[in-house]
Amino acid sequence: MERYAEQTRQEYEGWDEFFNRPVDEKLDFFRLNGRIFDLIYAQQFDRAFLDYLCQLAEQIRLLARTKVGQRKLRDLLPHKRAMLYFVQPSTRTFLSFINACHTLGMGVSEIRSTSTSSEVKGESPEDTIRTFASYVDLIISRHREAGFAEKTAWVLNQTERPVPVINGGSGPDQHPTQALLDIYTLEREFRNIGGLDGKKIAMVGDLKRGRTVRSLSYLMKNYRDITLYFVAPKVFRMKDDIKGFLDKHGIAYRETEDFESVMPLLDGIYMTRIQNEYSEHPATEEETYPDFHFKRKHLSMIQPHCAILHPLPRRYEIEICVDKDPRAAYWRQERCGMWIRAALIAYIFKVDSVIADEFS
Is residue 250 one of the residues assigned to a domain? Predict the structure, then answer.
């Protein structure tokens, strides 16, 4: 299969040249026949796609409630195979992807460490990825190195077997499928109060290195009258690239270190942990920043409909007792990940219309 015209392939002579281009200039490189082929950045989504994928996830969720529906889903992609190349620690993203594949009947292979591949013998990551593409139809990658998923797709799109690549987390920069499930969760939590449009959302904690809040911030350009509150210690404030993006798209945001002062205003609170794994000396970082924790006493300060999210894992930033409150949405959020990722895979392999026909 010819993935791209020869003119497109020649346009980018090397990885460094491609990588340094603005994201907006690269989006078409990861599309095929007008559809997303590789999912690398949150910026690839527009409002129509987000609404469509959330609806598709709901349809898959409904079908999976019955044995007949489960069989129909498993019959969609039994001829396809996926590789989960997860060489950065993961629980939720890995499990949700593998179960999304199983839901659609896909076979799955996995590698959880570079120590079990030929990279320990000196094989380049590029050759490792091309090896994967020889055996599977989809590569889902999670890697500590920023830009790894993008380079994987760039390499494969210039070969005779350009299988699609999904970014399951790439260093501290992007986690687009987490942003998808966050949008899906927020839309479900707000379905009785008009959806996500017009809402006030706080992002709390390590915003500098938290790829989940970075990716979710990109998606806010697709919603009307959104206001973001960046609540973080000075050392972990949101980076200027995200703030510049929000300024460009006219999205209101406010930065503060006073969490409690904004609590009564909020429709949603997105908690995050401190990302010590990206520290030079993580073992020596003992500060827990308690002013940026959500505690039992805060439940009386937030609105009755306010949804509390967290990408997990958590440590100390949300007290366990908060779990019992109906506004604690993070366990529902976790399960949403499996359904929206199944919807994404169905879309990539063009069986989404088969699912939609079940409801027509």
Answer: yes
Each residue's pLDDT tens digit, 50-73: 999 999 999 999 999 999 999 999
Q: What does each C-alpha distance from 197 to 65, 187, 288, 328 come to in angstroms?
A: 30, 9, 33, 20
Whether the Cβ atoms of residue 139 and residue 164 lie closer than 8 Å to each other: yes
H or E stretch covering 25: helix 23-26
Domain identity same for 323 and 222: yes
Rounded CA-CA distance 286/11 in Å is: 48
pTM given for the model: 0.92
- What pLDDT, on the 0 to 100 scale, is given for residue 198? 98
122 and 68 assigned to the same domain: yes
176 upstream amide cis, omega within 30 of 0? no
Question: Do residues 78 and 106 touch, judged by C-beta distance below 8 A?
Answer: yes
- Look at the chain and report how many structural domains it folds into: 2
The parent domain of residue 300 ranges over 176-275+287-335
Cβ-contact 232, 205 below 8 angstroms: yes
Q: What is the pLDDT of residues 297-323, one digit of tens each?
A: 999 999 999 999 999 999 999 999 999
CATH code of the domain containing 82: 3.40.50.1370
Alpha-carbon gap, residue 80 to 107, rounded angstroms: 7
Which amino acids are annotated catalytic? 92-93, 121, 142, 175
In terms of C-beta density within 10 A (0-12 exposed, 13-18 middle, 19 or more buried), how is residue 263 classed? buried
Q: 12 pLDDT exceeds 90?
A: no
List 31's β-bridge partners, or say none. Answer: 36
Checking 348-352 for CB contacts under 8 A at 24+ apart, the result is 348/35, 348/36, 348/37, 348/39, 348/138, 348/164, 348/166, 349/76, 349/77, 349/80, 349/137, 349/138, 350/35, 351/76, 351/77, 351/104, 352/56
Residue carrying the six token digits 């990109």 = 218
